[in-house]
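Ticket #366: bound-state structure for magnesium ion.
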Amino acid sequence: MTSTSSNSSHSALSSYGWDENWADAFAPHAAEGLLPGRVVRVDRGQCDVVTADGVLRADTAFVTPHDPLRVVCTGDWVAVEPAGNPRYVRTYLPRRTAFVRSTSSKRSEGQILAANVDHAIVAVSLAVELDLARIERFLALAWESGAQPVVVLTKADLVPDPVTLAYLVQDVETAAPGVPVLSVSAEQGEGLDVLAAVVSGGTAVLLGQSGAGKSTLANALLGEDAMDVQATRDVDGKGRHTTTTRNLLAMPGGGVLIDTPGLRGVGLWDAGNGVDQVFAEIAELAEECRFHDCAHESEPGCAVLAAIDSGALPERRLESYRKLMRENQRIVAKTDARVRAEIRKEYKRRGAIGKAAMEAKRGGLR
Ligand SMILES: Nc1nc2c(ncn2[C@@H]2O[C@H](COP(=O)(O)OP(=O)(O)OP(=O)(O)O)[C@@H](O)[C@H]2O)c(=O)[nH]1
Ligand SMILES: [Mg+2]
Ligand SMILES: [Zn+2]
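RESOLUTION: The complex was predicted; output attached.
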């Protein structure tokens, strides 16, 4: 019986990314009579889950623990109660990948933006000046998520000169080793076929600043206006934060796309490996340094500084690398401090319980 029900959900959910591995992971929940589904939106204590029987609204009270990294998120595969009012999401399957940022630089708290994504698409508008450092920051988190990053330069129609466009793409490529860089125009349709091909290979999430054109791209790929779009502000070209929830959409050409609200900034979140991947060529050069613990400051025989001198490595890259490394170390240290403080608090609490129990015992002996 379990196998027939999982077979039927397989066919209905496969356009949302359901596969044999998810089915295997879900088997114990299927045995309990729970339904598999994928979270398409999370919204104040409730979420929309697409199941073999269509989209249903479910309560997330069971999957909103104190740790924000363990809160159910768009893209999660969940086990939903087959009936009930409200229906509860009982649990979610272990994530294959997760895109996490720190919510603000002041607090050391991580926030998960999308789960189970194969491609993290960083949307960057060509209507405003390129900020390579910001792209590097997004890419560090993208690599760290476990997904393959892709940079999409949007609104290419605003750069009509092909030589200028080629230079812009090249600039971004130097900041993104190992990352495909595409230019697209949702307005004119250029590059959409390449992007559709990327998206068709699993689950992709669109990330970037407000006004970058994420929802316009989602609509263009979907072939219908599912997402609201608003003009950017005339004064500075910034977006109006039109999209407010993270939305998962099944694409007609295959694959799944998650559109997300524009991010003002993305703080690193324990992204040391991601940073190393963004600056892979620096790590490679560092292997040639005379001292293996070279800080690339003024050491003799430093291959990194030599590459800057020869022009092979832009100085901006090294500065950006240092900045992100320092920021990441701060976040990691803060998190460690927070975790230590929590452990101390827990010991104190336990100590207090122990003391109270001892006093009660003594009271009892009296
Ligand atoms: N010229 C041009 N304008 C575009 C293109 N794509 C999007 N835009 C415009 O950019 C503006 C912002 O687009 P949105 O799709 O709402 O941007 P978003 O990234 O979803 O923004 P948030 O939801 O606020 O994060 C709109 O006025 C779009 O019409 C494009 O290819 N060319
Ligand atoms: Mg949007
Ligand atoms: Zn060095």
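RESOLUTION NOTES: The chain has three domains: 3-92, 98-259, 272-365.
TICKET STATUS: resolved
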